[in-house]
Design brief:
Blueprint (H helix, E strand, L loop, with lengths): L18 H5 L2 H10 L3 E3 L4 E4 L2 H9 L4 E2 L28 H12 L2 H29 L2 E2 L1 H5 L1 H11 L8 H11 L6 H10 L3 H6 L11 H10 L7 H30 L1 H9 L4 H11 L5 E6 L3 E3 L2 E3 L4 E5 H4 L34 H18 E6 L4 E2 L8 E3 L1 E6 L1
Parallel strand pairs: 2-8
Antiparallel strand pairs: 1-2, 3-5, 4-12, 5-8, 6-7, 9-12, 10-11
Length: 404
Amino acid sequence: MNNSAPPGVPVVDVDPYSDAFLADPYPAHRQLRDAGPVVWIPKYGVYAAARHETVRAVFADHGTFISSAGVGLANFNKEEPFRPRSVILEADPPDHTRARAVLARILSPKAMMQMRETFQQEADALLDRFVEKAASAGTVDAVADLAEPYPLKVFPDAVGLEGAGRENLLLYGDMIFNSFGPRNERLAKSAERVKPVTEWIMNHCQRAQLRPGGFGDQIYQAADAGEITQAEAPMLVRSFLSAGVDTTINGLGNALLCLAREPEQYEKLRADLSLARSAFEESLRFESTVQTFFRTTSRATELEGAQLPVDSKIVCFLAAANRDERQWQEPDRFDITRRAAGHMAFGSGIHGCVGQVVARLEGELILSGLAKRVKRLEIAGEATRRPNNTLRALGSLPLRLVPA
């Protein structure tokens, strides 16, 4: 790898995968933004974009900045991926178009309306248990007792997955998102942890394991109709599950942490429950669940004055774009009344997260339901992070709840 800086491109000597960076990425994000629209990170020999306008431009030009060479640090044009690549995330048109069309139809507005009542019932039941546990035990862990069990229940239910063993999805998702970074110790440990459950994951993406009529079965029906291949169907189910659980769990966890840290914002939510969707969006902007994604140049190109040769990797800092003062007023302030539309937490362009409608529904129902039941959230101990090469993930969030 040639790690020497290209002429005229500012150098920012940071390691976005170090423990210190992952624990508090925001000072380095500012350094990256201030250095220029396109910078060079010498440790990994990659270009980087951290400003909102530049990140959006990269994602919008899917012909020049491709995904099929991997959306992580590894360049699939130069090395074989150590796992089968995603048929939705790590694909370009026309393959991506076919798979995306299937998922977009399955997650149509009509389907979301049909799901809402079931998702609401599950949210109410879980929140009642959550408040009861806090009353009896004194404290709860907002991650283990709320942010994890809700997405692990409603989304795999919708896919048609059986109930037992769903915790295996967490190990698999942790490994997948670690794999978008370097082959460091963090990835090695997560790959080792997932080994015992890999067979379970692959087996439960097969048609025989999925409930008829669920999202997973609908993917196989699309294969029957020739919209995708039979070989692509289980891979699409797998991608669906890995993308639709971890990101929502961490989005909910970060939202709960933001609201617990900012009691006046939580009061605004309690006073106006219609702000629940806005509160979730603002938490996604403020603490982006997915911190980074890469693209690879399909040809030599110019970006904001920088000359990028063909087959160059560029890392897009979604979380840095979401706190870009060029885009947002007071970007380091959490404000649930902010119009956060345009944030990059779900990406944008043709690869914008296809499951974002589900995540938004889950976030809205949990936050509005919590505000109905709980007067105040009090942090009852240190909130711990679970370091991941790509995700801004919480390990635990101890809370005391003051009931309404």
